[in-house]
Design brief:
about 55% strand; mainly beta; 2 domains; eight-stranded antiparallel sheet; AttH-like fold; about 250 residues; seven-stranded antiparallel sheet
Length: about 250
Amino acid sequence: MNVALYGPKGGWAMTERGRGSLHCTHDTLAIGPSSMAWDGTKLTIDLAEVTAPFPSRIRGRIMLHPRVMPGTLWPLDAAGCHAWRPIAPRAVVEVDLGSPNLRWRGEGYFDSNAGIEPLEHAFADWHWSRAHLQRDTVVMYEGNRRDGSDFAMGLRFAESGAIDEIALPPSQTLPKTLWRVSRRARADQGHPAAIRRTWEDTPFYARTALTARVLGEDAEIVHESLSLDRLTNPVVRLMLPFRMPRFVR
């Protein structure tokens, strides 16, 4: 289970585990000592992880209360091997950690990507962003497939549960990360996106906090860029165990 904390009490954990450490039912998922459970109204995440490469404990609970659940699935490729589901485009999130000592409550987002093959088999890269507007949530998702085709979508999720496709705002190139990962984002014409902070900077993935104007509103944006070409590089593969230790059982 991947956990990323940013700031003075930050830490990063993602331990790979064997089949014996996985337990799943209709409403629960346990991976090693950490678990998720859905009770029909909220998702409860209990964390018991160890960070890498410098070990420290992440212990505590996160509760996610969806404000809207559209229940819609979008295929990402023509063959239907990969799909994306924005489970809760907008939610109230409560964080209560004992280690590190951290408490927080605010707006959040919850989605899922699912597939029957590794992502790098179908995609070369993608860029994703989520903007919380005053009332609605806008998600923009685009990328390049291995077959040479592109995909791009812009969706606006209303508090009522209504979903509208939007015309994507103009694309702009953002500065590359220190690892030289390419980033591009979308914002209203004449209002370029600005990088507030780069949260995650790895050889193949970047997570960035942006500010921009989207659909006429100033917004705080969470942005992600993923390079699957970088991920498949043998050198990068050799580096992964330092951040993703393996526990086989």
